[in-house]
Every structure is written in structure tokens, then in C-alpha cells.
Design a protein that fits this description.
- By secondary structure, the chain is of the alpha+beta class.
- It contains 17 helices and 8 strands.
- Helix 3 packs antiparallel against helix 6 and helix 13 crosses helix 17.
């Protein structure tokens, strides 16, 4: 429910280093992979729909990746074939692609380590899909040599599913640091039910994603009725394609568990309206902004990328 802050790398001049270090992971095997990729395209893409080299795909921006993903899917490369017993097995064409763009044969660890190294500069703190779980790094002492080592507490999800398009399996701007619930239990190889050109509005890796402006957390009063229970409930207000995103990740249902926290925030807001904050500031000799921060803690939540930052801010601004 938030974008990865790649703009921070532009501000510090680290964007090129970031991409160069990522491409360096594949240096040794890249020439051979490029040859295999060219051979595959010559056989399966006679109209030259997929012009990109592997090197280009490694650091292509998300807008470019969506276009590639659509062109690949439009090729209708068969994903399965019948074996000698008549059972469906992975097709030779797909199997070869998965071999070329193999993510799990060692690259998964290297890519995860890469994101750990850049976690501080990217301010990776909470799940980019839900903001309900921390996806931070932590330090421990290696038992063998006594050195400090960094470890991660997050999964790396492929926003564009590599199971449906193996060619984006190694693309840097297709990776989303996420919690296990969002990655392994909900998303898997599935996607929200939107059009191709809407993907870039709901991917945390896209510069065009605007979750903050298009999803709003609200605490609502449920009316009484024959089939409805009275009481407050959490509702995430959104329109297409963000509504599909909210529904896909089950955010209304998952956030409903935290209704008591939403009610606490509402009561806190009612207890400390602007007039009371003004009185407290005057009494203590502090600025109103300082008093408000001490009470509601919003700056800390946003600055440090804590869980439920948007949830808290939206409910207090309602």
C-alpha cells in the first residue's frame, strides 16, 4: 500500500551504483544466458516481438516491464504439454525459459542479500503491499567467525508473476519486499483483476503508483439490520484499480482485526481537538506542532516507515 522509495537513490546520486551492483550479480553467466535467450527467441518469436536483451530486462523500469509482460503473454507460449502417459507437464519452451531466467538456483539468495545491503538507503521497513508487518533487516553474530552479518525478515515477491512470464524473474524493478502473508499465502502467481495497463498503478515498484491518494482508511458505523451487526468497522475506500488491489490482498478483512486500535485513535482525536492542543501548548510553552506530534506520533511513524502509518494518519485526519 506504498511505493518503494527509489527516488531516494536519485536524490543521493546512488541510482546508477544501485543498478550496476545489481547487474554485477549476473556478470559471469550473462554472456551464456544472452546466447540461450537469443536462440529461444529465434525459435519461438519469429515476429521479433521480444526485442529486449537479458541485460536490458535486468534493470528495465516497471512501465517497460509491463509492456514486455503483455507482449510475452500475447505470444501465447504453451505452458504445458502432454507427456507419454497423457499427463500435463511443463512445456519444453517454458522449461527452457525457466532455466535461462532461473531465480531459485542461487540467485534468490544473492538478490535477497543485495536488497539487505540497500535496505537502509531505500528505507525498507514494512510490507509494501499491506503495511501491516515489518520487513526489516537485523544483525546477528556469525557463530563460525564472530563477524556481524545482516539478515532479512522479508520475502521478495515478483509483482509480475515469473510463473506466467519467466523472463521477468530476474528483473530488479519487479521485486517487492513483502510479508509472508501477502507473498506466500495470497499473491503467489496470481494478480489483481485489472487490465495490463493498470498494473503500473498498483505495483509498489512503479513511479505511477499513488496508493496514498487513492486508498483511504475509514472507521464506519455499521447500521442495525436483520443480517448486519451494529458497531464500527474498518473500511478502505478506493476506486478502480485500487479497489481491486484492496480486495485482492483482503485488506478490509485483515485490517478489521485492528478495529480496537482504530477506535482508540478516534477517541484520542476527540479528546485532543485543535483547541485542546492549543491550550496544552500554551500551558507548557511548546509549539502546537510539537504537542500534536507528542500525542499522535505521526511524524515518527512516517519518518521511520512504521507499520500502520497510513492507517493511523488516515483515521486521525478523518
Amino acid at each position: 500500500m506504498k511505493r518503494i522509495k527509489y527516488e531516494l537513490l536519485k536524490k543521493t546520486g546512488d541510482e546508477k551504483t544501485f543498478e550496476d551492483e545489481y547487474k554485477a550479480i549476473f556478470d559471469k553467466k550473462l554472456p551464456d544466458k544472452e546466447k540461450e535467450w537469443t536462440t529461444w527467441k529465434n525459435t519461438n518469436d519469429p515476429t521479433v516481438t521480444l526485442k529486449e536483451s537479458i541485460e536490458e530486462l535486468l534493470t528495465a523500469d516497471f512501465h517497460h516491464l509491463v509492456g514486455f509482460y503483455k507482449r510475452f503473454r500475447d505470444l501465447k507460449v504453451p505452458e504445458t504439454q502432454k507427456d507419454k502417459n497423457g499427463k500435463d507437464v511443463k512445456s519444453d519452451e517454458f522449461e527452457k525459459l525457466e532455466e535461462i531466467f532461473n531465480y531459485t538456483n542461487g540467485y534468490d539468495v544473492k538478490i535477497a542479500d543485495f536488497f539487505v545491503q540497500w535496505a537502509e538507503k531505500l528505507e525498507i521497513r514494512s510490507c509494501y503491499y499491506c503495511e501491516m508487518a515489518y520487513v526489516n533487516t537485523y544483525t546477528l553474530i556469525d557463530k563460525d567467525n564472530g563477524n556481524l552479518v545482516e539478515r532479512r525478515q522479508f520475502d521478495l515477491d515478483h509483482f509480475l508473476p515469473k510463473g506466467k512470464c519467466p523472463c521477468v524473474g530476474l528483473s530488479l524493478y519487479n521485486f517487492v519486499p513483502s510479508c509472508q502473508v501477502c507473498n506466500s499465502r495470497i499473491k503467489l502467481d496470481n494478480m489483481p483483476d485489472v487490465e495490463y495497463d493498470e498494473y503500473e498503478y498498483i505495483s509498489p515498484t512503479s513511479v505511477n503508483a499513488k496508493f496514498d491518494e487513492n486508498i483511504t482508511v475509514r472507521l464506519r458505523l455499521r447500521p442495525t439490520g436483520q443480517y448486519l451487526l451494529a458497531g464500527r468497522y474498518i473500511y478502505l475506500k478506493a476506486q478502480r484499480p485500487y479497489r481491486q488491489y484492496v480486495d485482492f490482498f483482503r485488506l478490509n478483512e485483515r485490517y478489521s482485526f485492528h478495529r480496537s486500535e482504530a477506535e482508540r485513535l478516534k477517541n484520542l482525536k476527540d479528546r485532543y481537538p485543535k483547541s485542546n492542543i492549543r491550550k496544552i501548548a500554551k500551558l507548557l510553552g511548546y509549539r502546537e506542532k510539537v504537542v500534536k506530534e507528542d500525542i499522535f506520533n505521526l511524524h515518527f511513524l512516517k519518518e521511520k516507515g512504521r507499520c500502520f502509518e497510513k492507517f493511523t494518519r488516515d483515521l486521525l485526519e478523518e
